[in-house]
């Protein structure tokens, strides 16, 4: 699935990393322990969590990108860590529900 289609539909703003060409699936959730077992390689992970642990989990899972919902951002140190680990981070003003709905509409 083409990341660019989702970027355009959601008006995603790139905060860190490079835009992946494709993604495989989507996971939405804020519990880091749950995300560690549910985010699959190549997934877009939608969350409102914005700490360094998000970068660690995304890196371990080899997620395609993290999408921060509701306009959430990360501090410079966390974004620097994302860049260093090769984790792509976007932000979006939409809610988690709206992001999931809009991704589904792009894929249908």
Account of the protein in words:
The protein is α/β, with parallel strands linked by helices and 108 residues long. The chain has one domain (3-107): HprK N-terminal domain-like (Udp-n-acetylmuramoylalanyl-d-glutamate--2,6- Diaminopimelate Ligase, Chain: A, domain 1, 3-Layer(aba) Sandwich). Helix content is 44%, strand content 19%. The chain has 5 helices and 5 strands, in the order H-E-E-H-E-H-E-H-E-H. It has helices at 3-10, 32-38, 52-61, 76-85, 96-107, and strands spanning 13-16, 25-28, 43-47, 65-68, 89-91. It has a 5-stranded mixed beta sheet with strand order 1-5-4-3-2, with helices on both faces. Helix 2 (32-38) links the parallel strand 2 and strand 3. Helix 2 (32-38) runs parallel beside helix 3 (52-61). It starts with a helix and ends with a helix.
Question: Which structural class matches the secondary elements?
Answer: alpha/beta
- Main beta-sheet strand count, sense and barrel state: 5 strands, mixed
Topology order in helix (H) and strand (E) letters:
HEEHEHEHEH
Unreliable sequence segments: none
Please report the distance between the alpha carbons of the first and last residues: 11 Å
CATH superfamily: HprK N-terminal domain-like
Q: Could you give the order of strands across the largest sheet?
A: 1-5-4-3-2
What is the highest CATH level, the class? Answer: Alpha Beta
CATH architecture: 3-Layer(aba) Sandwich
User: What is the gyration radius calculated from CA atoms?
Assistant: 12 Å
Strand content: 15-25%
Mean pLDDT: 97
How many helical stretches? 5
């Amino acid at each position: 699935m083409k990341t660019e289609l989702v970027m355009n539909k959601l008006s995603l703003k790139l905060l860190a990393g490079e835009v992946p060409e494709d993604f495989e699936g989507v996971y939405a959730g804020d519990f880091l322990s749950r995300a560690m077992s549910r985010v699959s390689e190549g997934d877009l992970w939608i969350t409102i969590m914005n700490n360094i642990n998000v970068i660690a989990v995304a890196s371990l899972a080899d997620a395609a990108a993290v999408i921060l919902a509701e306009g959430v951002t990360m501090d410079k140190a966390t974004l620097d860590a994302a860049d260093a680990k090769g984790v792509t981070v976007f932000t979006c003003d939409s809610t988690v529900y709206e992001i999931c709905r809009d991704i589904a509409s792009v894929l249908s």
